[in-house]
Design a protein that fits this description.
Helix content: 55-70%
Radius of gyration: 25 Å
Structural class: mainly alpha
Oligomer: single chain
Order of helices and strands: HHH
Low-confidence stretches: none
Number of strands: 0
Largest sheet: none
Strand content: under 5%
C-alpha cells in the first residue's frame, strides 16, 4: 500500500505535467482561433513580403556557413554551463576561477583551430 507521501509526490508530478501540457497546447489553440487565414496565389509564393521572387529559393550555401553556425551553437551552449559554475563558487574561489579559465581556454582552442582552417574568411560567390 503506497504511503500518503508517495501519493502526494505523484500528485505533484501529475500537476506539473498537466500545467506543462496546458502551457504548450493553449497558445496553439488560441493562435488557431485568432489568426486570419489568407488564401490565394500570393499565399503560395516563397516569400510573403509582397516582393517578387527572383529565381529559385533552393540555392546552395557554402559549408563555411554551417561550420560557423555549429561553432556559434557550441559556444552558446558552453556559455550556458558557465552560469551555474558562477553561482556555486565555494570556499575555494581561486581554484574555481582557475577551473573556469581552463574551461574557457580549451574552448578558445576550438576558435583558434577554426581560424587556422579559414572558417572565418568569407568569400562572395558569383
Amino acid at each position: 500500500m503506497p504511503t500518503q507521501e508517495l501519493l502526494l509526490d505523484f500528485l505533484a508530478v501529475a500537476f506539473y505535467l498537466f500545467v506543462g501540457v496546458v502551457f504548450a497546447v493553449v497558445p496553439l489553440i488560441l493562435s488557431a482561433l485568432i489568426v486570419k487565414r489568407s488564401v490565394g496565389a500570393k499565399r503560395e509564393e516563397t516569400y510573403e513580403s509582397g516582393m517578387q521572387t527572383i529565381g529559385s529559393a533552393w540555392i546552395q550555401f557554402t559549408v563555411a556557413y554551417y561550420i560557423y553556425a555549429l561553432i556559434f551553437l557550441a559556444f552558446d551552449v558552453d556559455v550556458l554551463y558557465l552560469f551555474p559554475v558562477a553561482l556555486v563558487y565555494g570556499s575555494y574561489p581561486i581554484r574555481d576561477v582557475v577551473e573556469v579559465l581552463i574551461f574557457v581556454g580549451i574552448l578558445s582552442l576550438a576558435i583558434v583551430y577554426a581560424w587556422c582552417k579559414g572558417v572565418f574568411e568569407w568569400q562572395s560567390q558569383k
